[in-house]
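Posting this for the archive.
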Amino acid sequence: MSHTQHPILKSISILTLYLIYMFDIAAIVVVLVLFSALLIDPNSQMIAPSTSIHTRNIYLGFLYAAYPATQFLGAPILGELSDRLGRKIIINVSTLGTVAAFFLTASSILYLNLPLLFLSRLAGGFFAGNASLAQASVSNIVSKQNRSRAMALFAVAGGLSWIIGPFLGTILSNSKIVPWFGLDTPFWFLGFIFLLCWGLFMVSYQNINIKKERERLSIVQCFKNLSTIFHERIIIVPFAASLISMLGWMVVQDFFSPFLMEKFSFNTQKVGYAFAYMSVWWLIGGLFSMFIFKFKRPSTFITITTVLAAIFVLIYAIDPSPSFIFWAVAVANICFATSYSAFTALFSHLLPETMQGKLYGSWMGGFALVSAVAPAFGGWISFLGIGVPFTFGCIVILLSAGVYQAWYRKNALKLKTLKV
């Protein structure tokens, strides 16, 4: 597809798309940092002081689940609509929806309104589909030879998000730094950031992928149309393998915090530092992917990096030494970030540009479902021991590597032809 967009405007639009993706992820981290203080702290006025800790945890669980639940619905719908109506109009709408959701979250915290907070999380999850639209749009804009590195850069953006998010939440909510800072402030900030992104995107992005046909639009049809990505049979197995690997990884991520607290008596601050440390290595993995994909095809890296990630995840469960575990964390995050980047790059080459919105929308919907299932299942098996979720995560990640490798051996020649 040929694009005649001015180079400066093209650069601004690409940067804006990465910013949208990055702050979508950072917002998730901000929620993880702040919502516990909002609901679990007995001094919080969001819910009655007499509310039991068990009930507070239930509320917190539902708040966490609300976002991925509507993201599961929203990401595929927005992806389908962007393929039909064009990226620009749908990203504009979803970004403004994200602005409204963050302002609603901030207002609900400011006025101590729990039902409104739930509503804001439901709205925020639905419009979070703009993260997958950002990926699809970048895939369309960049040249085919630069596409693998451009998609790997999303892993870098994700790593930065997990580094920025904790500091964004803790600094902007600390009234000791600025008297009017509070738990609502980070969400006002995020709302204005997305409003800025909306303005930049409006003036810089050239619309593409508008279909000529104007068949009647329906939500049910949006979901039915998503199945068309699987008409290209080559995408089915790697798509499934990537989500299987993500299920294992999310179980590991969700239980890393209680593992550190139980095994090594980490407090909240130390856990925060541990996640920041983890994110640095994920960032390095993304940068490594960008470099190595200049010379090597992404499809050749997935099996080995996924297997290595699984092996080093298992060390979490079997080694009692915190120093060795943190080396394992470094290797596991570098390897899994490379695997994630390679999957993303692979997808961008396997389907035509007109289906990229459906593709990344479907993947983001699947990721949202995985994000909702992983903590629930991990919580159930953690009764067997705090290390059990890591063993389970290792097995699931290894399973995904086996599934992918079997597919790769059958399709190696075609992938070599596609140079991916």
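The CA atoms of residues 252 and 390 lie 5 Å apart. The radius of gyration is 21 Å.
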